[in-house]
Automatic annotation (TrEMBL):
Pfam family, one: BID
Entry keywords, A to Z: Apoptosis, Cytoplasm, Membrane, Mitochondrion, Mitochondrion outer membrane
InterPro entries assigned: Bcl-2-like_sf (IPR036834), BID (IPR010479)
SUPFAM superfamilies linked to this entry: Bcl-2 inhibitors of programmed cell death (SSF56854)
Record has Membrane as a keyword: yes
Main location (coarse class): cytoplasm
Upper taxonomic lineage: Eukaryota, Metazoa, Chordata, Craniata, Vertebrata
GO cellular component, one term: cytosol
Protein origin, superkingdom: Eukaryota
GO terms, biological process: apoptotic mitochondrial changes; positive regulation of extrinsic apoptotic signaling pathway; positive regulation of intrinsic apoptotic signaling pathway; positive regulation of release of cytochrome c from mitochondria
Location in or out of the cell: Cytoplasm; Mitochondrion outer membrane
Entry annotated with the keyword Metal-binding: no
Name of the protein in question: BH3-interacting domain death agonist
Length: 194
């Protein structure tokens, strides 16, 4: 799949991000649970009514926080018109996620560890409305540090680095998954300034 050619015509960030997180895998057991919860609530790509009743109890005994549910409801209206509704688009999202993983693998472990630690600290010290700015700063720093990234289209590299940075932060702090997922999807909405 030529991801450079298809990037502009593929606005399904929510599905691509979910596919990326699932394909990349999780080391942290709590993050795996959070990712399963997120997957159940989004139920991409065919169910557009993916937000269910208030504070339901999950199979692992945890209840979903109302603030996360409200965040997902808020993003549902912005993301829902972009969601794919057929198997072909879902397959394209999985292929694009695999390409983003290949790009993200350019990051040296040391560089990614430093960026992850820095972003985790910034997120823990700031209010959620500033998270997109911190995430953007972290991604821009990675873009400057990784020489091999220049051979790919800038938008794809930015998306790959954003996804992998988000995933690594969530490995350290799994409870950030729902909020960072929403932040990242909002960040990549068409016509949104970065």
């Amino acid at each position: 799949m030529d991801c450079n050619r298809n990037f502009e015509n593929f606005p399904h960030t929510s599905l691509v991000l979910l596919s990326f997180l699932q394909q990349k895998g999780c080391q942290n057991i709590e993050l795996k649970r959070e990712l399963n919860d997120l997957d159940e609530h989004l139920n991409l790509p065919t169910n557009h009514n993916y937000i269910e009743g208030d504070d339901e109890l999950q199979a692992d005994g945890h209840s979903i926080s109302l603030s996360y549910r409200e965040l997902l409801l808020e993003f549902q209206h912005e993301v829902q018109p972009q969601l794919p509704v057929n198997a072909e688009e879902a397959h394209a999202a999985r292929e694009m996620a695999a390409e983003l993983i290949r790009i993200a693998d350019l990051l040296e472990h040391r560089v990614l560890s430093q960026a992850t630690d820095s972003l985790t600290k910034k997120l823990s010290r700031s209010q959620e409305q500033f998270w997109a700015g911190h995430l953007s700063d972290g991604v821009q720093a990675l873009l400057r540090q990784v020489a091999g990234a220049k051979e790919f289209k800038k938008e794809l590299v930015e998306m790959a680095f954003t996804f992998v940075l988000m995933k690594n932060v969530c490995e350290h702090v799994p409870e950030y998954l729902f909020r960072l997922y929403g932040t990242v999807v909002q960040y990549f909405l068409p016509n949104r300034s970065h």
